[in-house]
Design goal:
alpha/beta; Rossmann fold; 2 domains; 14 strands
Length: about 400
């Protein structure tokens, strides 16, 4: 993690001349890598494509587990690393990190010279990479555009990334229409479904005994809760207040076993993670926290859990697909499509407690479609790869605003 401003980049693999189309995938967190894995694997195995990988952000931070090593352990070759995280999570430091990232990506893209850069989501690391690609005249393929997350600054960055991208892969038809509403050409916007659902069709999940061994904990309580809570970065008040409301609600569940997965490097993210560790240390028998579980353990735990609590997008997309109810706290995911199995609540302990009781009630369980997905049934990675391989790049940088009729 950087303590000063100059950008640092590291080229990890030689740059080879090739006639194949070069697809550069940028990943900044363990979460987006877990979603991109099958696309990266498909591109690497395609004889007409050459995979390039650039790791940045939390992947390079010891504090967040140096998760770029997981990419390498999975058999991928990193072409470059872009150091951009400063040693603080204040708004000023996040803004400076974006600037450092733009500088680093400018150098990396000049060296790698990809034909298309692939990014996912709305985080500030991706925002930095796409700015550099736009100025470098490199086409961008954006996954998960058109969605809304009204409680975070990522909302604006997602739509900005859409406007700087040439190809768009959305998770649902309403999102495809929204990208077109933003002025993008319909022939360049593809509804592929959520790419994260590919993990549910491709991975073999771990059963409860295997999870206990992998996590080194006993899942022996009557109620198992998987909890992931991220700061709402548009708020000016103390994000710790929301965490304390969650803890108070969990205190009322004496027979519950709670497994926390820590948040990302957002504004106040480190503060929240410290609060989680402090809470877990008070209840070592029934509360555990993990910096990084990886996709297999995380989805396996989600499948075993009685309920998912927090404000992670996985509670909106993956949890309904595996049949686990979600208590969605606050505004971070406000605006997304939501299945019947999701209960929204505010950040007060009373509201969270009420939502938990509702989610666990027999009446609610009867109403929930136990395998309900609003985001497709998997297969997005193959669809995206096909477009990356076959789409014409001639004239792709020229974007004409697609005007809609206004009544």
């Amino acid at each position: 993690m950087l303590n000063e401003i100059p950008a640092q980049i590291h080229l990890d693999a030689p740059i080879a001349a090739t006639a194949r189309r070069k697809i550069c995938v940028v990943t900044g967190t363990r979460a987006d890598y877990g979603l991109l894995y099958w696309l990266m694997k498909g591109v690497a195995e395609d004889p007409d494509l050459q995979l390039q990988i650039v790791a940045t952000g939390m992947h390079l931070s010891p504090e967040f587990g140096l998760t770029y090593t997981q990419i390498e352990n999975d058999g991928f070759i990193l072409n470059a690393k872009v150091e951009m995280l400063l040693s603080s999570d204040s708004p000023v430091s996040i803004a400076k990190s974006i600037g450092v990232g733009v500088i680093g990506f400018a150098d990396v893209l000049n060296l790698l010279k990809p034909d298309i850069m692939v990014v996912l989501g709305d985080r500030f690391e991706i925002f930095a990479a796409v700015q550099a690609a736009m100025v470098s005249r490199i086409p961008v393929a954006h996954i998960h555009g058109g969605e809304t997350t009204e409680g975070v600054i990522d909302e604006a960055m997602r739509h900005a990334i859409t406007k700087m991208s040439q190809l768009h892969f959305t998770a649902a038809e309403p999102y495809r229409k929204r990208v077109i509403q933003l002025g993008e050409s319909p022939e360049r916007v593809f509804n592929t479904g959520a790419i994260g659902l590919d993990n549910l069709t491709q991975l073999t999940l771990i059963n409860r005994p295997g999870l206990e061994e992998a996590l080194n904990i006993k899942l022996d309580h009557s109620l198992i809760i998987l909890c992931t809570y991220h700061p709402e970065t548009l708020k000016h008040d103390d994000s710790g207040n929301a965490m304390r409301g969650l803890f108070k609600a969990l205190d009322g569940l004496k027979d519950a076993q709670v497994i926390f997965t820590k948040g990302n490097a957002d504004t106040d993210g480190r503060k929240n993670n410290q609060l989680i560790d402090d809470y877990a240390s008070r209840y070592p028998r029934r509360v555990a926290s993990f910096t990084n579980l990886g996709q297999v353990k995380y989805l396996s735990l989600m499948s075993e859990a009685d309920i998912v609590i927090g404000n992670s997008s996985s509670g909106i997309i993956e949890a309904p697909a595996v049949g686990t109810p979600t208590v969605n706290i606050g505004l971070r995911q406000q605006g997304r499509l939501k299945a019947q199995s999701i209960i929204d609540c505010d950040e007060s302990s009373e509201s969270i407690t009420y939502a938990i009781k509702k989610a666990l009630s027999p009446e609610f369980q009867e109403l929930v479609d136990r395998r309900n997905s609003l985001f497709g049934q998997g297969g997005a990675s193959e669809q995206i790869k096909r477009v990356l391989r076959t789409t014409t790049l001639e004239g792709i940088l020229i974007k004409r605003f697609n005007d809609l009729e206004i009544p």
